[in-house]
Amino acid sequence: MRKLIFAILCVGLIFTNTVFATASTHIWAPSTDIQPFNLWHITWDGYLPAQLDKDAQGNGTRLAPVTNLGITTGILPFQKVQMELGIDHKAGLSTADKYPMYVNAKVGIPEGTFGKHFPAIAAGGFDFGTKADVTDYNVLYAKVAKTFPTIGKISVGYFSGNKKLLLNKNGEKDNAGPMVAWERTMPEISDKLWLCVDYMGTKSAYGTLNLGFSWKCADNISILCGYDIVNDKDLTGVENCVTVQADIDLRCFGCK
After folding, report:
1. In this predicted model, what pLDDT tens digit does every residue of 174-194 receive, in sequence order?
2. Could you tell me if 23 and 193 are in contact, meaning their C-beta atoms sit under 8 angstroms apart?
3. What is the pTM assigned to this prediction?
4. CA pair distance 175, 205, nearest whole angstrom
């Protein structure tokens, strides 16, 4: 699968048009953005614990990073209703690494579709794994978003996942909670700069407060840097992580 993804990336780079689309997530939580039809969005995300793991390792070393390599593409040729499908390869998750493939999907209506005050609406799911009660987190969510002058875009939503896997530090189910985000492009500084704060509730492994920015290096390439503060460090073993995410959008010549 890694070789296949690498081959697709290489071929796509040869046939890239200058097309840019925002990522399907904010920093951590899913957004209302959906990839356009026939556009391939490739992302590599890395998460590195910011603190030394003195308690668990006993020697001041760091925990291994978690990485995610994903491909998402739009599958509906419509403007008012859009849908995307994607796959992810995740590593650094201990025993779950034996089953590294995950599926995600999202359907939604873009902001302004039925009038200038109409919000973006999206519903979908992610982390549909291949091993029961090991990687099948099966997170479902719904979210709405609206852009306000000067302030930026505000998103609110709710999610729910597998109650056998989304647990708190006491082993009790904590599988549902809110999602909130603020994001804004900063034309006062540069149209290439984007800022974001997003939050995902619960004290399960998904619960985080995330702060970050991205820089659009080219029309179809962006780099994101962020800081993730976990809601319950006793569950995860770390207080926070540093994340670096690279995104590239590809479309072959002749595609419409």
Report:
1. 999 999 999 999 999 999 999
2. no
3. 0.84
4. 10
